[in-house]
Amino acid sequence: MLKIGVVLGSVREGRNGLSVANWTIEKSKEFSNADEVSFELVDLADYNLPFLGVTPTAEQAIAIGSWSEKIASFDGYIFITAEYNHGIAGAFKNALDFLKPEVKNKAVAFIGYGGLGAARAIESMRMVSGELALATTQRNVNFSLITDFENMSTFAPADFHEGELKELLQQLAAWSTALKTIR
């Protein structure tokens, strides 16, 4: 069985990402065989990670270990990312910088939300993922704050995104299965 971590990368108060992550998990379970793949939400806000390079407090050292252990437990990932100032959220990039062997030779897919569906943040994440030895899917899902959210805050995705998610899941499952053979 494949274990897929749905990683919510925004820690911002009032973030839209939690509704996107919940939709992703709900639809992914609906579109996948429960005997073949499982999905689990990993909320970055649950980990009090220090800035990389700063001496961590005892509590932060535990958070680093918990983050590493949780991420290592998956065969693949769906990264849920917002776009801030044309890029990835700083907290998410910092969290990824704590990882390398935990994600090596695994697969990742991206779901973004923002003014342009987080397209620029996802492109940035593709470069970071390459350096982490993560294989990225071709398909991603991009939610626009203008058309997929009412008043830019209540998640109301267009129906066509379900087809995109199905394709993303097929690619993620194929890559995750293939890469499991070399780990």
From TrEMBL:
InterPro entries: Flavoprotein-like_sf, FMN_Rdtase-like_dom, NAD(P)H-dep_reductase. It comes from the Bacteria. One of its GO terms (molecular function) is FMN binding. Pfam families: FMN_red (PF03358). Residues 3-141 form the NADPH-dependent FMN reductase-like domain. One of its GO terms (cellular component) is cytosol. PANTHER family: CHROMATE REDUCTASE, NAD(P)H-DEPENDENT FMN REDUCTASE LOT6. This is NAD(P)H-dependent FMN reductase.
